[in-house]
Give the backbone structure.
Amino acid sequence: TGTIVNAGQSQLLILPSAVATVAYDIADGQPKWTVYHGGMNASARPVMADTESVLITNGMGKLISVDPTAKGDVTQSHVHFERSKVVPRKSTPVIVNNLAFMVSDKGIASCIDTKTGTEHWAERLGGTFAASPIADGQKILALSESGKLHVFAASKKYQSLVELKFANGFHASPAAVGGKLILRSLTHLYCIKATE
């Protein structure tokens, strides 16, 4: 899945693929930069961490940070950092205040600094995960394939806030719209509204 970002004076469509990720200038459709990272059929979309970095996962457990304003082959010149520890193969990281939160396929949640790649914490939630987490600015919500909903603080220190169990597991990522939380399990569609 591609992502549209503003990078300097350009608007880019960043498209991950099996071996590389390519950024196309939306104004003329021409490739602006390419980063070769290896991997296979990345399902996670690239995410803009800040004006100087976009985070890309390669579908094989590797995450890299690239300068989105660069040009040409940026593999050696404009990669800020890369890491392979507890990086998801399927789901997309979520960014809050220069922190990236992600949950690996094997159920390890982690928090890293988006500028340096430094890990602040990693905690085993248990179970397996395919759905991408979402954030509201203060909390991260993640759904497991066994049907558990985990809510933890969007901070440099791990703090579990809520754990709920649903009847069936989740592969689809949650969605928030109009004050409601939409969850699609393997068998049910849930709409959860905050109480007043």
Notes: The chain has no helices and 20 strands.
